[in-house]
Design a protein that fits this description.
Number of strands of chain B: 11
Radius of gyration of chain B: 14 Å
Largest sheet of chain A: 7 strands, mixed
Number of helices of chain A: 0
Oligomer: heterodimer
Distance between the termini of chain A: 37 Å
Distance between the termini of chain B: 37 Å
Helix content of chain A: under 10%
Structural class of chain A: mainly beta
Number of helices of chain B: 0
Radius of gyration of chain A: 13 Å
Largest interface: A-B, 26 and 25 residues
Number of strands of chain A: 11
Shape of chain B: globular
Mean pLDDT of chain B: 92
Largest sheet of chain B: 6 strands, mixed
Low-confidence stretches of chain B: none
Shape of chain A: globular
Order of helices and strands of chain A: EEEEEEEEEEE
Order of helices and strands of chain B: EEEEEEEEEEE
Chain lengths: 113, 114
C-alpha cells in the first residue's frame, strides 16, 4: 500500500507570494490533517479535513487555508507569505476513527526569503 | 503551563541500556496517548499508543501511563544506535473527535552511543 505522498518536497518563495502544497493520503483514509513543524514550536496543528469538510482548525491566521477533494486528496494554500512561514509542512492521513493514529508524509520544506 | 511537556534532551544512553523518555500533560480529561519517533530529516511515525493506566509492551518498547499523575513514559530496552531519534509524545484531549484535539510535545532527542 502506498504511503502518504506530498509534493513538492522543497519550495523556495519570496515574501508576499502564495504557495500551494499537495497531499495524497493512503488509499482508504478519509481524514487528512496538516501540521507545521519548526525547531522552536514543534508540531503545530493547522487543520483537518474529513470527507471534504474541514473538521477542525488550529490557531493560524486566515492566510492558511486548505481543501479536500472527493478522492480525499488535499491541498493547503498559504497566501501573502511571511518569513516566519518558513517551516516543514507535514500532511498526515488517518482512517478517521478518532485522533492519534496518524501516517505522515515526507513533508514539504518551505523557505521564504 | 504547556499542555504537553517533554525534556528536550539530548538524552544519551549507551548501547544495550534502557532509555526512559518522559512526558507530562496538563489536561486531566485526556483520553489517549501516543508516542511517535522522528528520525533526523524524516517524518514522524507512530510506535506506541496507550489508553488505560498501566504498562503496554510491544517488543523492546514499553509505554507506561499514570492518569492520576498525568504522566506517560516510554521505555526502550536494549537500546540500539538505530533508536537514535527524536521521540514525540502526543496526547488526545478528549475521546473521539478530530485530530485538532491531538497535542504534540516538542520531543526528546535520544542518542544511543555504541
Amino acid at each position: 500500500k502506498a504511503g502518504v505522498t506530498q509534493t513538492p518536497r522543497y519550495l523556495i518563495k519570496t515574501r508576499g507570494q502564495q504557495v500551494t502544497l499537495s497531499c495524497s493520503p493512503i488509499s482508504g483514509h478519509r481524514s487528512v490533517s496538516w501540521y507545521q513543524q519548526t525547531p522552536g514550536q514543534g508540531l503545530q496543528f493547522l487543520f483537518e479535513y474529513f470527507s471534504e469538510t474541514q473538521r477542525n482548525k488550529g490557531n493560524f491566521p486566515g492566510r492558511f487555508s486548505g481543501r479536500q477533494f472527493s478522492n480525499s486528496r488535499s491541498e493547503m494554500n498559504v497566501s501573502t507569505l511571511e518569513l516566519g512561514d518558513s517551516a516543514l509542512y507535514l500532511c498526515a492521513s488517518s482512517f478517521g476513527q478518532g485522533p492519534g493514529k496518524l501516517f505522515f508524509g515526507s513533508g514539504t520544506q518551505l523557505s521564504v526569503l | 503551563q504547556k499542555e504537553v511537556e517533554q525534556n528536550s534532551g539530548p538524552l544519551s544512553v549507551p548501547e544495550g541500556a534502557i532509555a526512559s523518555l518522559n512526558c507530562t500533560y496538563s489536561d486531566r480529561v485526556s483520553q489517549s496517548f501516543f508516542w511517535y519517533r522522528q528520525y533526523s530529516g524524516k517524518s514522524p511515525e507512530l510506535i506506541m499508543s496507550i489508553y488505560s493506566n498501566g504498562d503496554k509492551e510491544d517488543g523492546r518498547f514499553t509505554a507506561q501511563l499514570n492518569k492520576a499523575s498525568q504522566y506517560v513514559s516510554l521505555l526502550i530496552r536494549d537500546s540500539q544506535p538505530s533508536d537514535s531519534a527524536t521521540y514525540l509524545c502526543a496526547v488526545n484531549r478528549e475521546d473521539g473527535g478530530s485530530q485538532g484535539n491531538l497535542i504534540f510535545g516538542k520531543g526528546t532527542k535520544l542518542s544511543v552511543k555504541p
